[in-house]
Write a structure and sequence with these properties.
By secondary structure, the protein is an alpha+beta fold. The chain is about 20% helix and about 30% strand.
């Protein structure tokens, strides 16, 4: 179910929030969050007209149900001081007569980490606006509410950034509260949040949700790889049947979803008073981790014989009140990330009937129109896995790894944004990300490395990735009024690096202090330093210097697009001057013909050579020679999945495309991953979208489609050399899709291009036998390469 959207006016969001009466919502000392529930009985005489809008926000999270159906989760994570209110159409779920609207509200405490990406004030609250039938949902009298008892939230060992693990007592938590037969007479009428000055921290300002509601789609289980009781026919569960568990049993079963996904879980049971259910969501089968959660040992992700599942369990204590008609349901509040789910059931003196285990897939509803196919079956697999990985890492923000953190990091997000631009013309999540990092700006000039986050962290290079993300948004979308909002913050970021420039052209990096982290890449040579190259006693940072030059040029393109000619010229002049200073400065090692990571010692990494090319410090034949030698040199630290996008771009730009190697991705397929892993150093996450490089690389280079002017008002078509027999696909633009199909023939590549009418087209200089056909809405060009 994907919600349609509505523009919400400020008036829709005015007025006080609901809260529980004083001193009734304190979290348990053992819980990182408290929860409360709200119920409204709404009567309508006729089928509701469409749409019926409900505006809703919460501190910190909510789940909305209408007549027992799960409708929406939110609100969108706050950005800076701005919180969001969602707009949900509930018309399709309303019936003539009585309807039950239920809202489950979770509030993280201010004394624990909880979900690190979710802001909180420490004051549980709910805002609802809208009218259903004759009922004004903004009136306290429309509602009954209560604190949820017997429910605790834990930080977890694996999911230590999330605070989503649950222990729940079914007997204390009134599991049937969403049914019309539930008696809520003992529940209270909510209070209105008193906003008197100095009484409490004011509620933050609200804005309309800038992104659509998440997809909610049922998904099947496909298999049972492992169980402690093979005598039970678990295939009945997969087919919709029930499973009976005898009294005084302790049974576990591993359920296979078929591929790694992000989904809400729900387990429905009958009877079984006193039974305990344990749900463990896991990405894969693996060997015992070396250091939870950081260092894992993984090979074949489906190896259930020698491997095991490692994750943080959720616990449920059954009340035994479930019936065939109205089951007792345990559904953890937030979604889980998994391919496998281990269900352990320990019964007491009563038997238990397992009705179902339901999965509800959830992710950002990206409207995918970009396509790619080729003569390579491996390419098809790389494309499909890349799409799945990206979607798993897109919810209310882009995310680094949904199993472990669900935090939006600037480096990761820049890659994911570029990937999504090749799949869809929907750039709303990208805009949201750019705004999130701008809102995190620090007086030093840097943006935080991850935003939103309740814990500040600064990785200086990530602020430069943020600038590149804006420049790419200009290229692919071209919204001047949006881009020019960030010029001040861009200048502040560049100022941070300008203040740290030494006379010999090096950026001098500050010492890391826990909050400041000079991360570059997860490569084995930098394992002990957590991704940071050796910078020497002076801390002269070659890679940061090249990245700064590249960001200056990206900033110049943004300023030029926004009509800030003087600023664009200033940035270009600074980049040119610094390029001349560092090209043959102390970073260059003449003996090896490589750049050092610092101002002394021997060259250590491919990264320094890659950034020398990306920054334009090295160009032409020198760039080709430098990168060909660098990727072949086993003494240099190689790039990981995290920096493969930049490496492959540098190799293509330097005409060293024959050195591009997809073997690491093919190795992941051979190990039965269904999404791309985070890295080969920690082997931590099995789902990290910075590895979805094919989503940009195949359209950009194999099809040869790229913007030739801001906003894709002109398109360049230049398929790079490859060994493929044919390739075809389309790339979305703000003006409509651009399609390319080419086929190898004895005389070369025969290329056909379809572009929207009025779109400029730039063909390669080597194009011959060019022909063109124009209709009212499309141009078709053919040529030979």
């Amino acid at each position: 179910m994907v919600q349609t959207e509505k523009v919400v006016t400020k008036q829709d969001l005015g007025g006080p929030w609901f809260e529980l009466p004083a001193d009734t919502h304190a979290a348990s000392p053992d819980s990182v969050a408290s929860t409360m529930r709200f119920r409204a009985r709404v009567t309508i005489e006729f089928p509701a007209p469409a749409p019926v809008w409900v505006h809703i926000s919460a501190d910190s999270r909510y789940k909305l149900h209408v007549n027992g159906a799960f409708v929406a989760a939110g609100p969108a994570k706050p950005s800076g001081r701005t919180w969001f209110a969602d707009t949900v159409d509930v018309a399709a779920l309303l019936v003539p007569g009585e309807n039950i609207i239920g809202i489950d509200v979770l509030t993280y405490t201010t004394t624990s980490l909880g979900n690190a990406s979710v802001q909180r004030t420490g004051r549980p609250g709910l805002l609802v606006r809208g009218t259903v039938g004759e009922t004004d949902l903004s009136a306290p009298a429309a509602w009954r509410c209560c604190v949820v008892k017997g429910r605790q939230f834990h930080q977890g060992r694996n999911t230590l950034f999330l605070g989503i693990q649950e222990t729940m007592d079914g007997a204390a938590s009134e599991h049937d509260w969403l049914t019309s037969s539930f008696d809520d007479a003992a529940w209270q009428v909510p209070s209105l949040d008193n906003q008197e000055p100095f009484r409490a921290t004011p509620r933050p300002p609200l804005a309309p949700r800038p992104i659509p509601q998440l997809t909610l789609a049922p998904m099947p289980l496909i298999g049972v790889p492992k169980t402690t009781d093979p005598g039970i026919d678990w295939s009945r569960l997969l087919g919709g049947g029930t499973i009976d568990i005898p009294p005084r049993s302790d049974i576990s079963v591993d359920l296979d979803a078929g591929f790694l996904m992000t989904a809400f879980l729900a387990v429905a049971i009958e009877a079984g008073k006193g039974a305990r259910l344990q749900l463990t969501a896991a990405e894969c089968y693996e060997q015992p981790p070396t250091d939870l959660p950081w260092l894992r040992r993984k090979a074949d992700r489906t190896d259930h014989v020698t491997g095991d599942l490692y994750g943080d369990p959720d616990q449920y204590h059954a009340s035994g009140t479930g019936t065939p008609e109205v089951a007792e349901v345990f559904s953890p509040f937030w979604f889980r990330t998994f391919r496998y789910v281990r269900l352990r059931i320990t019964t007491a003196d009563s038997p238990l009937r397992l009705q179902s285990v339901e999965l509800t897939l959830t992710h950002y509803p990206l409207d995918i129109t970009g396509t790619f196919s080729s003569s390579s079956d491996v390419h098809r697999q790389l494309w499909d896995v890349s799409v799945r990985t990206l979607l798993n890492c897109m919810h209310e923000t882009f995310e680094d790894c949904p199993f472990y953190e669900q935090l939006q990091y600037a480096m990761d997000t820049r890659s994911q944004a570029l990937f999504s631009l090749h799949l869809s013309a929907d750039d709303r999540l990208i805009r949201r990300a750019i705004e999130d990092f701008a809102a995190s700006g620090n007086p030093t000039g840097l943006t935080e490395s991850r935003s939103p986050s309740v814990e500040p962290q600064f990785i200086p290079g990530f602020s430069l990735y943020w600038i590149r993300m804006i420049a790419e948004h200009v290229d692919y979308v071209g919204d001047r009024s949006f881009a020019e909002r960030f010029i001040g913050r861009i200048d502040a970021v560049l100022g941070y690096f300008a203040d740290r420039l030494a006379p010999d052209g090096f950026v001098i990096s500050a010492e890391g202090d826990g909050i400041l982290w000079n991360f570059v890449d997860w490569t084995e040579a930098w394992r002990a330093s957590r991704g940071v190259p050796e910078l020497g006693p002076r801390r002269a940072n070659t890679i940061a210097t090249f990245m700064y030059v590249s960001a200056l040029r990206a900033a110049a393109s943004i300023a030029d697009f926004c009509g800030r000619d003087g600023l664009a010229q200033e940035y270009t002049s600074r980049a040119d001057a610094l390029t001349e200073t560092v090209r043959r400065g102390a970073a260059w090692d003449g003996d090896s013909g490589f750049y050092r990571d610092s101002d002394r010692g021997t060259p250590q990494s491919v990264h320094a050579q890659m950034w020398a090319v990306l920054s334009g410090v090295v160009q032409g034949g020198a760039a080709t020679d430098l990168l060909r030698r660098a990727v072949a040199d086993r003494q240099l630290a190689p790039c990981s999945y995290a920096t493969a996008l930049d490496l492959f771009d540098a190799l293509r730009n330097a005409h060293a495309h024959e050195t591009i190697d997809w073997t690491p991705w093919e190795d992941m397929l051979a190990q039965n991953l269904t999404t791309w892993a985070e890295d080969t150093v920690s082997l931590r996450s099995d789902c990290h979208a910075w590895g979805s490089v094919p989503l940009q690389h195949f359209p950009r280079y194999i099809l040869g489609v790229s913007p030739a002017a801001p906003g894709f008002t002109s398109v360049a078509i230049d398929p790079a050399p490859s060994e493929l027999d044919w390739a075809e696909g389309s790339v979305p633009t703000p003006h409509g899709p651009v399609g390319v199909a080419w086929k190898r023939t004895p005389s070369g590549k025969n290329v056909t291009v379809w572009v929207p009418a009025g779109l400029g087209v730039k063909l390669p200089a080597a194009a011959s036998a060019i022909s063109e056909h124009v209709t009212d809405d499309r141009r078709t060009l053919t040529f030979t390469l």
